[in-house]
């Protein structure tokens, strides 16, 4: 018997598999669709004035009619949030490495970092706006609110790596830098990416908080200004943009995580579901 005859035949493709995959993704859309349906029903039954509660159709129309104005303000929010997140990622990772590797830094700095999070960001943002110009203040508030998750998850990830791996490599002659870059840091990446995904969303929140305190541009400023003029439909449109920006930031970090850690997201079917 030849080798080809001994090999088992490949399992035929199941025609219903793409349909089942689509059905498994359907629950992802159920919650927003249910929310839109409930929103539409409330507006259709109660018929509130548009300045009090606009309908989904009016918000969608505003998103299209005022797309240029919304994009103008969105650029300021996106820029400040992106810079704040980048600073949070760099500074947060550096602090995490210092806290995890140097015991003196851990004892002197880590408790104060935890205590600083008890201060409401709304209490700090006006002071930052007074000390700095609008643009730097917006970036700084985004950084302050975003860097703490990076530090905490980075420290937990670095400390969670089994020290036996590093000890074995040191015994075999590997240097501390090589061991950190090849063993400790890759082992901490899953935890670190969890913090980066949280920080990406928090950076958008921080940028908007700074715009509410004092700004002349940005989606937060546009929402506050529109609400003061009873242009609630425009405020809803700005909020929709903010939600989309937050999801986009989160998705970009999740994409980077998939590229850096492909084995973590590789789909492995359990034995009872294999053909």
Distance between the termini: 25 Å
Total helix count?
A: 12
What is the CATH first-level class name? Mainly Alpha
* Main sheet specs: none
- Find the CATH superfamily: MetI-like
Please give the share of residues in helix: over 70%
Spatial shape: globular
- Tell me the CATH topology: MetI-like fold
Order of helices and strands: HHHHHHHHHHHH
Query: What do the pLDDT scores average to?
Result: 83
Provide the low-confidence segments as ranges: 1-5, 268-275
Question: How does this structure look, described?
Answer:
- The chain is mostly helical.
- The chain has one domain: MetI-like (MetI-like fold, Orthogonal Bundle).
- The protein has twelve helices and no strands.
- Helix 5 (67-101) runs antiparallel to helix 6 (103-116) and helix 11 packs antiparallel against helix 12 (232-260).
- Residues 1-5 and 268-275 have low confidence and may be disordered.
Layout of SSEs?
Elements: H1 3-6, H2 17-25, H3 27-46, H4 56-65, H5 67-101, H6 103-116, H7 121-131, H8 134-160, H9 163-171, H10 176-213, H11 219-228, H12 232-260
Helix pairs in contact: 4-12, 5-6, 5-8, 5-10, 5-11, 5-12, 7-8, 7-10, 8-10, 9-10, 10-11, 10-12, 11-12
């Amino acid at each position: 018997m030849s080798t080809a005859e001994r090999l088992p035949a490949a399992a035929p493709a199941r025609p219903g598999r793409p349909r089942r995959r689509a059905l498994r993704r359907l629950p992802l859309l159920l919650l927003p669709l249910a929310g839109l349906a409930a929103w539409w029903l409330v507006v259709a039954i109660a018929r509130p004035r548009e300045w009090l509660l606009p309908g989904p159709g009016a918000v969608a129309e505003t998103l299209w009619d005022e797309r240029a104005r919304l994009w103008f303000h969105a650029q300021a929010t996106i820029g400040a949030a992106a810079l704040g997140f980048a600073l949070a990622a760099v500074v947060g990772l550096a602090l995490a490495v210092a806290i995890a590797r140097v015991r003196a830094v851990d004892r002197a700095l880590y408790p104060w970092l935890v205590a600083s999070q008890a201060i409401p960001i709304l209490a700090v943002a006006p002071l930052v706006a007074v000390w700095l110009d609008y643009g730097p203040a917006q970036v700084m508030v985004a950084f302050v609110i975003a860097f703490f998750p990076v530090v905490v998850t980075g420290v937990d990830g670095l400390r969670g790596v089994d020290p036996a791996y590093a000890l074995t490599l040191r015994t075999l002659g590997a240097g501390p830098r090589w061991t950190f870059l090849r063993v400790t840091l890759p082992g901490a990446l899953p935890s670190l990416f969890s913090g980066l995904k949280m920080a990406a969303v928090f950076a958008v929140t921080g940028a908007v908080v700074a715009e509410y305190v004092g700004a002349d541009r940005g989606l937060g400023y546009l929402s506050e200004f529109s609400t003061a003029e009873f242009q609630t439909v425009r405020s809803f449109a700005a909020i929709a943009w903010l939600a989309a920006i937050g999801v986009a930031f989160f998705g970009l970090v999740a994409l980077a995580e998939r590229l850096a850690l492909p084995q973590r997201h590789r789909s492995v079917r359990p034995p009872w579901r294999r053909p």
